[in-house]
Amino acid sequence: MTQDVVPPAVHGRGKPPRKDGLAALAFLSPAIVTFLVFVLAPTAGVLYLSFYDWNLLSDGTFVGTDNFDRLVHDERLLHVYGSTAYMALAILAVNVVVGLLLAVLLETRMPRWLRGFFRLSFLFPFVVSASAVALIWRFLLNKDLGLVNYVLGVIGLDRIDWLGSSAWAPVSVIVVNSWKTIGFSILVYIAGLQAIPDVLREAAIVDGANAWTRFWRITFPMLSPTIFFLVVINTINSFQIFAEPRVLTQGGPGDASRTIVEYLYDRAFGDFDLGYASAIGITFMLVLIALTAIQFRLSRRWTFYE
């Protein structure tokens, strides 16, 4: 009777070697430690502080859920949430829509020898400090001495109080933040465009499809994972803007351009009400988690091809 001979490599295949597991853990340990120290531990600390009344100068007093009860009756907080949502959604739209249009123009309409220059031009503001960018734009948008109003005057238009008007201050924050961050979206879109096989476009050209048909039927569906990624990332980042409104308008006039992060900062280090600020931070984190979960839930609708 012939006995089947099992190759040595097959033995033990059901059980991964212990050394491989230890090696994987060793490679993952820096990320795990970083997450525990810089994400999980601070979050737990903020959650702990949200149940206390603490002003940094004295021992904290346990107040239970009083800080969260204050959130419900804080009308100013609701207004700040509204201004934050307005600016964040506008920034999101600019990064996702305008970023896509600019990326397509750079890849399809721009001469090759100019592509590198324009890519660098769009990406450069992204790597510069947000405070430095906001400070430069604060001078450019100055009502009396700013270059923007000077140009408007030259072409015969009235000067605009970009930073002192409740209508224009949020617009200024949107423009400055979008100008700084859109380079990242363009770079990601370019990577997505370059991953689309050229054979698909060539086949569409042979079939007589024009540029719009090729974009709508090939480019846009193939970019749906990239679009989804940028929607999630830009939603989280745009809701957390701080430096631009802080430097440009200090959140004013009133609370017209104030964001949740700025309001939290003012309550924590302006009023020394760290317990209430911690409660704001916890609820804001939950709002961002909920928005991200909704986006992932809807991700199937944003994916236009299988």
Give a short synopsis of this structure:
The protein has 306 residues and is mainly α. Helices cover 71% and strands 1% of the residues. The protein has 2 domains: 18-49; 75-302, MetI-like fold, CATH 1.10.3720.10.
Helices and strands in order, then pairings?
Layout: H1 18-49, E1 52-53, E2 61-62, H2 66-73, H3 75-108, H4 112-127, H5 130-140, H6 147-154, H7 168-194, H8 198-206, H9 211-222, H10 224-239, H11 243-248, H12 260-270, H13 274-297, H14 299-302
Helix pairs in contact: 1-13, 2-13, 3-7, 3-10, 4-7, 7-10, 10-13, 12-13
Radius of gyration: 26 Å
**What value does the average pLDDT take?**
87
The CATH level-2 architecture of the largest domain is identified as: Orthogonal Bundle
Strand content: under 5%
CATH topology of the largest domain: MetI-like fold
Counting H and I runs of at least 4 residues, what is the number of helices?
A: 14
Low-confidence stretches: none
Distance between the termini: 51 Å
Shape: globular
- As a percent range, the share of helical residues equals over 70%
For this structure, what is the CATH class of the largest domain? Mainly Alpha
Order of helices and strands: HEEHHHHHHHHHHHHH
Count the E strands: 2
Strand order of the largest sheet: 1-2
> Main β-sheet, in a few words?
2 strands, antiparallel
Q: How many domains in all?
A: 2
